[in-house]
Amino acid sequence: MSEYAIEMLGITKRFPGIIANDNITLQLKKGEIHALLGENGAGKSTLMSVLFGLYQPEEGEIRKDGKKVEIKDPNDANDLGIGMVHQHFKLVECFSVLDNIILGVETTKNGFLQKDGARKKVMELSQKYGLSVDPDAIIEDTTVGMQQRTEILKMLYRDNEILIFDEPTAVLTPQEIQELMQIMKNLAAEGKSILFITHKLGEIMQVADRCTVLRKGKYIGTVDIKDTNPEKLSAMMVGRDVNFVVEKDEANPGEVVLDVKDMVVGSKCHKNNAVNGVSLQVHRGEIVCIAGIDGNGQTEFVYGLSGLEPIKSGTITMNGKDITHMPIRERLTSGMSHIPEDRHKHGLVLDYSLEDNIVLQRYFEPQFTNKFGFLKRKEIRKYANRLIEQYDIRSGQGAVTKARSMSGGNQQKAIIAREIDKNPELLIAVQPTRGLDVGAIEHVHKQLVQARDAGKGVLLISLELDEVMNVSDRILVMYEGEIVGEFDPKKVTVEELGLYMAGSKRKETKSNE
């Protein structure tokens, strides 16, 4: 009997203009947590999609328990006990949690759905693995964390033995990440074998037994976690040493670029307001960070600022001009840039090419459109190619690649390039490094600091406490729609911030302690 639950031997997968997987071998032992690490576009998700039957490889073979298997589609994968939680969840938004879990493997009697047994099994699994869900909640009304737990229960409900997690922590809060790490350890202790795709070196050190590294579609090596450290892993991943410290000089705040007074934004989920009387200022030459646990009004606050949602009351002033009721395009042409939280929903038109996405907010400018209203395609291509090179945006067919076919990290790089290159007065960056590898994170942080040093105002919204502490010049903590504290990152501890983020402490008056 083979010691490996799964072996992928010599896998090669090609797409137009790119070899996504170039002769890759990956061996997963029974009962282990095996991390798959690599830069954005290194071929990790493609390799897992081959294992799950979403893609067919041109070369190589897959073995399960030592025997060669053919996986033509996800149904074959499920029959072999292989389940996958995708980076962008595959859930039906208007179905309940329970309906999503049983979809495709429903029990029926005389043509009628039998849900009682399914509900019982789901609740038992939920309790056993600490995956708290409300089976009757509609997916579109649930948090990202519950959607992820739904995806995991979907795998467990099908009695899958091999579990693939593709970037499972990219959209979770620090607390939810810790919960997930524990769930993964419990699953491995039960004898399940886990493949875990991530960019986050700390998570690999915390839960993985072994780690396989890919770079530009090629296999670099497999290491035992007990014999390595984050510095060695990052060097394997990007082919050079990465600086984990954000290098920046002291901030020199200038005049106020953004002034928000008593902003109130309603909530779509409950009758309380999502944002409740928030006032803040961002000066030129500083990075102000709003920290907080997801779901405390940060999203709605940014929607109000950028015009995606109307505000109930309050005023927003940018460069001394009242923009409270200004249309979105006018805000953007008046000097605002917005790196959105959800790159698929608000960041990109997925079926447009990369170059069209890059000029999405500027195509009407004389540089890109002639006096008769026709697009200057050559100029657009030239501009897109410059940004592709400058920001290392990797795609199979360059500027004409469809945004949908790019890796999540490269989609994010495209948005960041577009928003920063507009040379804004105010840059609103929401989770700008979500789903990026360490090399790309280093680049984005440098760009934010450069924008600050060029006299721009930067408003950063982040759930990553390391990012909050390292990048910001001033930290505001948001809890239940209100600013509950203001801090200097050099004088506050992560533990202290955590207490404010959890609502255990609050400052009644603004200060700069």
TrEMBL record:
Signal peptide: none annotated. Keywords: ATP-binding, Cell membrane, Membrane, Nucleotide-binding, Repeat, Translocase, Transport. The keyword Translocase applies. Gene3D superfamilies: P-loop containing nucleotide triphosphate hydrolases. It comes from the Bacteria. It is found in: Cell membrane. Transmembrane segments: none annotated. InterPro entries: AAA+_ATPase, ABC_carbohydrate_import_ATPase, ABC_transporter-like_ATP-bd, ABC_transporter-like_CS, P-loop_NTPase. GO terms for molecular function: ATP binding; ATP hydrolysis activity. Residues 6-241, 258-505 form the ABC transporter domain. It is a peripheral membrane protein. GO terms for cellular component: plasma membrane. PANTHER family: CARBOHYDRATE TRANSPORT ATP-BINDING PROTEIN MG119-RELATED, GUANOSINE IMPORT ATP-BINDING PROTEIN NUPO. This is ABC transporter ATP-binding protein. It comes from Blautia segnis.
